Amino acid sequence: MGMSCLANSVVVLDFETTGLSPNMGDRAIEIGAVKLVDGMVVDTFQQLMNPGFRVSAFIESYTGISNHMLSDAPSCQEVMGEFAQFIEGCNLVAHNASFDKRFLDAEFSAIGANYTGQFACSMLIARRLFQQAPTHKLGDLVRYTRIEHDGVFHRALADSEMTAKLWMVMLQELSQHGIHNPQFSFMQRLSKTSKNALRPLFDKYASR
Q: Kind and range of the H or E element at 10?
């Protein structure tokens, strides 16, 4: 099965981590992901992982993931090996993708795994499509677009489920502009298009 080029068949993922920078020794402590095929959720992945050191009180309170919870979780190596299989052959979406890509790259490089998919950032695309939203944080966009949610944020599976819903809302929004079932590469392009160049981009693709 070849990789789908369509934007509605992707893996939406979210990491919780010990801090902001893998270069400074930060590690992933939870991965959550949702697999979409033709816009439908067909599979999910969620796993805590033990980074091999204690996490800070700030991260414990921010994520709700305690050192106690991590103490008997499998290692990053083990979980990332499983996750490599989960995302095989899929393009990837994350909210603030540059953050999640840094951690995915660092964790995969630690175990010699790789992936063939490309990333798109739902936050950058939301900035173009929902310019009136109060902020483009995930929680604010979920409220702005009236996506149903259970109020849980900063846990990896809940966040990736919200992001997957937001992604589908954005594809719906694009269909209002005459862009139906766009390719993943279009979404990447959209994320880098300046606000005043959106109209010409939409017109060009809608006429196809």
A: strand 10-17
| SS3 assignment, position 73 | coil
What span, in angstroms and rounded, lies between the C-alpha atoms of 112 and 176?
43
**pLDDT, mean over the chain:** 95
pLDDT along the chain (208 residues), means of 10: 84 97 96 98 98 96 95 97 98 98 98 97 98 96 91 84 97 96 97 95 88
pLDDT tens digits for range 37-87: 999 999 999 999 999 999 999 999 999 999 999 999 999 999 999 999 999
CA angle 16, 18, 166 (to 5 degrees): 20
Alpha helices for 25-155 (secondary structure H): 57-63, 67-71, 76-86, 97-111, 122-129, 138-144
**Size of the chain, expressed as the number of residues it contains:** 208
Q: How far is CA 78 from CA 21, 25, 108, 110, 168, in A?
A: 21, 18, 11, 11, 31
Collapsing DSSP to helix, strand or coil, 154 comes out as coil
pTM over 0.90: yes
Task: Report CA torsion sign: 139, 152, 65, 52.
Answer: negative
Measured in whole angstroms, how far is the alpha carbon of residue 23 from the centre of its chain?
A: 21
